[in-house]
Amino acid sequence: MAGETVFAVFFVLFVVAALAVPLLLWSEIEAETDRTERMDRASAERTARRDAGGDATSRSDDDRRDGIDGRNRGADHWDREENENGDRF
Known about the structure:
Mean pLDDT: 76
Oligomer: single chain
Structural class: mainly alpha
């Protein structure tokens, strides 16, 4: 009989925890999104550069056109990049 009571108590605690943890996480996420500062694009870019430790002057023209990580570069990108031997890389 005592074993059944202990099992019942642990089962109830498990169910409460299983319901409480997702609700707690949801409420924390909601509270964080309510505190989000709204800003225009220029302010957001300045803030992102400041947080990342970079500035606008460190980016090349190619980076501005193609994206900082180069993922948006087209096929002509490979034609532009050759070493002194003419090998493409």
